[in-house]
Amino acid sequence: MIINCNILIADDHPVVLFGTKTFLEQKGFNVVSACENGVEAYNQISHKKPDIALLDMSMPGMNGIEIIQKTQADGLSTKIVLLTMHSEYSIFNRAKELGVRGYLLKEFAMDELEKCIDEVCQGKTYFSKHLSQKLTITDDESDADLSQLTFAERKILDLVAQEKSTKDIASMLFISEKTVETHRSHIIKKLNI
Q: Is 36 helix (H, G, I), strand (E, B) or coil?
C-alpha cells in the first residue's frame, strides 16, 4: 500500500463523506480535504493539488465530469476517481474519454476502494469489476442520433424521460430554468422531435 498518497474526497452526502474519509484513514491513506460540493472540491484540488481526487459524480455546484474538464483545462495533474451510482454507459464512456483514472459504483465501493486507490497511486487505472454487469445502454442511447447531444443535453433528456419538470431539472442540476429550456430546444432541434 502507498501511504504517502494525498487524497481529496468530495461527496454531498455527509454520512458517505465521513464514512469514506474514516475508511481511507484507517487504511493509512492521507486525506487532505473532505468537500461537500463540486465547487469546493475544485477549489481544494486547485489549492492543495492532491495526488488523487475521489469525487461523487453528482454534486451541487459542479459534477464529477465538469471537475475533470476544469482540472484538465487548468493543467492540474490530480488523478480523478469517480465514485457514483450512475451505471449508464454514456456517463462512463464520457468519463473515460476525459481520462478518468478510476470509476467505482457506490454499491460495491467498500470492496474495491482500497485496491482502486493503490492502483491509481501507482499510475494505473482501475474500473470497477462490476461495471460489465451493471452498465446499461438504454434503447435511446443505442440510437445513433443521440451521439449529437452534449453530456448536459443527454442528462436533461434523461430527466425529461423521468417526467421531471423544467423547474425540477433546474433545481436538480443547479442551473437556471432558462438554461434548461435552451438545452431542451437544442435537443428538440438535434433529434427532430
A: coil
Average pLDDT of 98-118? 88
d(CA 162, CA 166): 12
Rounded CA-CA distance 154/167 in Å is: 17
Q: How far apart are CA 66 and CA 52, in angstroms?
A: 16
What is the gyration radius of the CA atoms in the chain, in angstroms? 17
Say how many C-beta atoms besides its own lie within 10 A of residue 99's C-beta: 12
Percent of the chain at pLDDT > 90 equals 39
The pTM of the full predicted model, rounded to 2 decimals, is: 0.67
Judged on CB neighbours under 10 Å (0-12, 13-18, 19+), 193 is exposed
Residue 25 DSSP SS3: helix
Tell me: the pLDDT tens digits for 130-153?
775 555 444 444 444 677 888 888
With 0-12 CB in 10 A as exposed, 13-18 as middle and 19+ as buried, what is 59? buried
Per-residue pLDDT band for 187 (boundaries 50, 70, 90) equals confident
User: Do residues 3 and 30 lie in contact, with contact meaning Cβ atoms separated by under 8 Å?
Assistant: yes
